[in-house]
Amino acid sequence: MSQPISAEAAARLADLRGEIDRIDAEMHALLIERSQIIDELITVKSTQASGSAFRPGREASMMQAIARRHTGSLPLDTAEGIWRVIIATFTWMQAPFNVHADISSGDGPMRDSARFHFGFTVPYLPHGSAADVIAAVGRSAGDVGIFRADSGVSSLAWWDALTDAAAPKIIARLPFIERPDHPAGTPVFVVSKPLADAAVRETILYAARVERWPENAAAALAGVGAEVIGSAGASGGLSLLIAAPGALAPDAMAAALPQAAGRAALVEVGSHADRFRMT
Ligand SMILES: C=C(O[C@@H]1C=C(C(=O)O)C=C[C@H]1O)C(=O)O
């Protein structure tokens, strides 16, 4: 049983609860005010024409601003989670979309990721394979798909299904704020139909087909700031997923692959904002 509190403490408690009610009402009113801006934003962005209202570069910079200005005892996890739900829901209000997830490596982490980054209003649709996710996104007007970005050496080069010009492309890497012990820290790539001028190109992703993988290849790529982040066996050799700085020209990227790798075909499969890491 809790101890009865003094009359003085009870009065102070009532004051504090009054403060919390005032702040809650103000935050709610601000959210309603934020939602009123959306109607005009829909017209200005012509979202209906482009199919997707998702602007990953803008979202990455908003999330980075939140991380930079965060202070006090409230966990950053909570501030980040609240704004992910706000931003994703407002994006969905502009043009409804679904999140298709490749759960071939397990549903739990993908569901956590989808719920943390897109909230519960945006529908979550699990699929048994990457191919099914890419096909579903391709058929949709503005849906997104999520894949684990840490697949490393895998049996399936899912990124090969993104090489066609009209095929979906990678548009973001989540979480926007990376740190140890992130509550939904599974790294995922987000794909959507090509965003054209709305894409952020700080990091470019290439699918590369090489005949073999020489020992010095990773170091050669690191020399130009690039990294192999996925690889899988493919007909005639290996299919790689390479992340390279947006400032690096495709020719310079191709030249960085050692000759011993054999003839390399490089195709851009998407881009995303620079990773933002907090220790
Ligand atoms: C509001 C916009 O659209 C989307 C929603 C955002 C938000 O609610 O803040 C931010 C970026 C977009 O993904 C926008 O483009 O500014």
Automatic annotation (TrEMBL):
Superkingdom of source: Bacteria
Which keywords does UniProt give here?
Coiled coil
Which EC class, in a word?
isomerase
Please list the residue ranges annotated as the Chorismate mutase domain: 7-98
**InterPro entries tied to this protein:** Chorismate_II_sf, CM_dom_sf, CM_II_prokaryot
Where does this protein have coiled-coil stretches? 6-33
| Molecular-function GO terms, alphabetical | chorismate mutase activity
Q: Does the keyword Ion transport apply?
A: no
For this protein, the record's SUPFAM superfamilies field holds: Chorismate mutase II
Q: Give one GO biological process term.
A: chorismate metabolic process
Name of the protein in its database record: chorismate mutase
Q: Does the keyword Coiled coil apply?
A: yes
List the Pfam families: CM_2 (PF01817)
Stated EC number for the protein is: 5.4.99.5
